[in-house]
Amino acid sequence: MTANPLAPSWLVVPDDANELAPAVWPSNATRAAGGELTLGGVTASALTAQFGTPLYVVDEADARARARDLRDAFDREFARIGTDVTIYYAGKAFLCAAVAEWMTGEGLAVDVCSAGEFAVALAAGVDPARIGYHGNNKSLAEIDNAVENGVGAIVIDSPVEVERVAAAARRHGRVQKVRLRVNSGVHAHTHDFLATAHEDQKFGITLDDAPTLVSSIRSHASLEFLGLHCHIGSQIFGADGFSESAARLLAVHAELRAGGEIAELNLGGGFGIAYTTADDPTAIAVLARQLADIVAAECARLQIPVPHLAFEPGRVIIGPSAVTLYEVGTVKPVSVGLDDGSSAVRTYVSVDGGMSDNARPALYGADYSVRIANRVTDARAALIRVAGKHCESGDIVVYADYLPGDVQPGDTLAVPATGAYCWSLSSNYNYLGRPAVVAVNDGAARVIVRGETIDDLLARDPGIGRGTRKAQTAGDHDTNNTAASSPDSQKAS
Amino acid sequence: MTANPLAPSWLVVPDDANELAPAVWPSNATRAAGGELTLGGVTASALTAQFGTPLYVVDEADARARARDLRDAFDREFARIGTDVTIYYAGKAFLCAAVAEWMTGEGLAVDVCSAGEFAVALAAGVDPARIGYHGNNKSLAEIDNAVENGVGAIVIDSPVEVERVAAAARRHGRVQKVRLRVNSGVHAHTHDFLATAHEDQKFGITLDDAPTLVSSIRSHASLEFLGLHCHIGSQIFGADGFSESAARLLAVHAELRAGGEIAELNLGGGFGIAYTTADDPTAIAVLARQLADIVAAECARLQIPVPHLAFEPGRVIIGPSAVTLYEVGTVKPVSVGLDDGSSAVRTYVSVDGGMSDNARPALYGADYSVRIANRVTDARAALIRVAGKHCESGDIVVYADYLPGDVQPGDTLAVPATGAYCWSLSSNYNYLGRPAVVAVNDGAARVIVRGETIDDLLARDPGIGRGTRKAQTAGDHDTNNTAASSPDSQKAS
Questions:
Q1: How many domains does chain A have?
Q2: ipTM more than 0.85?
Q3: What is the extent of the structural domain holding A295?
Q4: Which residues does B70 contact at the CB level (< 8 Å), separation at least 6?
Q5: B interface mutation test: which of A117, A136, A489 has the most B CBs within 10 A?
Q6: Which of B232, B264, B262, B226 is closest to B245 using CA atoms?
Q7: Residues 390-419, chain A: which have Cβ within 8 Å of B?
Q8: Where a domain ends, among B299, B317, B335?
Q9: Band of the pLDDT at A485, cuts 50, 70, 90?
Q10: What is the domain-level CATH number for residue B103?
Q11: Does the distance separating the beta carbons of B464 and A120 come in below 8 Å?
């Protein structure tokens, strides 16, 4: 089959539009005997029957394995160069109690960047000493609360935070470990390595300013300087940016050692994943080896001991582990005129979620893949666009993929690689309740975040008296999605 | 003062960086004697003291006046050409019980596009016969629920919906009024008027297909065809797009009259507002006159009676009525290199909200304005960028404006024109609770949507036992923001 002229150039016409490309699906995603998608041993139909759609499904074993494999690879490679490493799971990608437990269970520490994320981590039993706290504008209350609860380290983002954290530490009689966030001038996602570290962004300080700030940190008895921190971007496919950034940071790190030993270097996160088969991120094991090599080489050149290393991956661990299930509501072939006067057909497949459960296509133009989950079919592949149900033309879930041309209302669609920054960024746009998150493992499924009912959405509106509800408000979004019923939903008429 | 070379070309250096430009502020926004911002007669300091920050503040009298003035203008102009008009408030812009009451109180009908929006409207006491129901993918349950509850009209968006709505109407023994959404080929926001109506988007059908669909609608005894519906875009500043679209629709409308009278024509919404002083939307009174003129002229040319008209504005009514208040946490001057080798300073002012309470800058690159709310100052103006507190470099609230250069931590900032698509699109990214919405009127303030506490955010996580909370989780976001305490927040440690 030839490509549809409306398809983007990167999109390959698949030999089989039912195939689950291993690079973009959780490792335990398979087709059952009848062709149905199975996730962690649970069929899509069992999941949708029990929990409804839309539904986030996380493969627990897959997420744990990615965490473990990443930690193992970094442990091994950095042991090779004579040091050790701490892996912080970046909670902003997706955090709930279950995920925090999985990550700590696999030996990871946890990164948070707000009072809310910190509260989740603590409530999930994460050792506060194994929590790192980020943010360009932590509130005084957040800093105080973090210090009081024994947070492992705070990443200082601006000069004013030195004083704020020092004061909080004094108040609570603690010596607070801190990192200093610097900009290395490396923007890995744009392949733009600036000559200077003067960056037009809200985070961190310039490398030039680091010595002054580190002196300031060292002047406080209530602070312990752990080392520099840098984050060069997100969804990065290769090691070049990290290498360049590590070299720049280590040069300053070496200078700063004149004022005292520095335990650590934190190179942040940003490791990319495959959302489509066109994406080709460097394997984590290779990345770990390259990063260890560059750190070893730079430290040798600078004649300094190799520091303890820290990294903060989120997406690369949880992103590929989840799949979103939707139900198709409408299928609409749209004839689009081409420049040569001819036309081609793009089929809009509308589902029962959209930009409220996955903002990334609208927010970043992010591409995703899609497959029919409830069946396989030999129908000729057609170029489709998966649209959401929101009242907005930019509400797209998958800009372009090929699906069997007989995709129809009632089919279940599965969009892979939705574990990171989908639930995190979800909204209630158009008063759609956010879907439940279900973990699958070894043939069993359990709710790890309850879905929202319409009653949940109305609960904060004081103008809506409980007794004045005039109508049954059951929609698709409040059937079955509730592991624990809210007090409101039990009162629903 | 000369412009900062980092400023966008549209941004004018203000004579007074404290001034509240009438075009972008609610009509009852003033500076009190001491210089403090006052909204609806309530000072910013009184609002933040009682409700905390971030905070959405809606000027009730302003919103009502915009609704009333719009309705009056359209009534007057369409009466002049011998017909009448229904104005539907587009609930997707911002809907809660209070706003629904204001809109219906000013004689507007209400547009919804989901079971949730419909539930809010009903619970707020909106007459279902005055509700229009939109959506490219209404679920069967949504259609059934809408019909059962006597919804005024359903906008049919695809062929399959004809059968779905007809079946629901039969089931409930009703004759359901329906509109048919068509694409006119006019994209007003891009000034791109396509020669054909074949549009590469999820909504509606082509004008060419309208006769077939209308025949299908008319073949059902359970459906009553009201007329065509079109929506040409959003944030539109002039009448040209509406005029072109109206002409195209009326030509088909005239053809369709061969098969029976057609009561109405619905030209949708999309009227733009000023987010900055560089925005210059056509005044509503002028737009109403131009639209009435084009409809009258086209009907005369086609020798058909002028139909009843309907419009669906949202943003133009509620957008300018609200202001978001934030507290400044950090102020960071960043030196940015210019092409000529020199550099200029952009000051990053970080606030306690961000893309979670206003996604539009990140989502659409939307520009906003900002002023210091708690004081006026003669300090020389500086180019600032207001950044949020999320762990994401794209988390910007105001890309560029000039503020007095002595803006400092603890100041309250006010961002105007945040009434539409801010609360609607809000998220809990980084576990930030969504701010409360407060209505101000005549010197009094009341909560119309309660803000979220951290406990609200954790309530759907079954892994977080109520008894296992290990820490005080109070952050900025859960102080005072709660008009009605949730059961959880009362249990907070």
A1: 2
A2: yes
A3: 60-319
A4: B87, B284, B288, B313, B316, B317
A5: A136
A6: B232
A7: 390-393, 395-396, 409
A8: B317
A9: very low
A10: 3.20.20.10
A11: yes
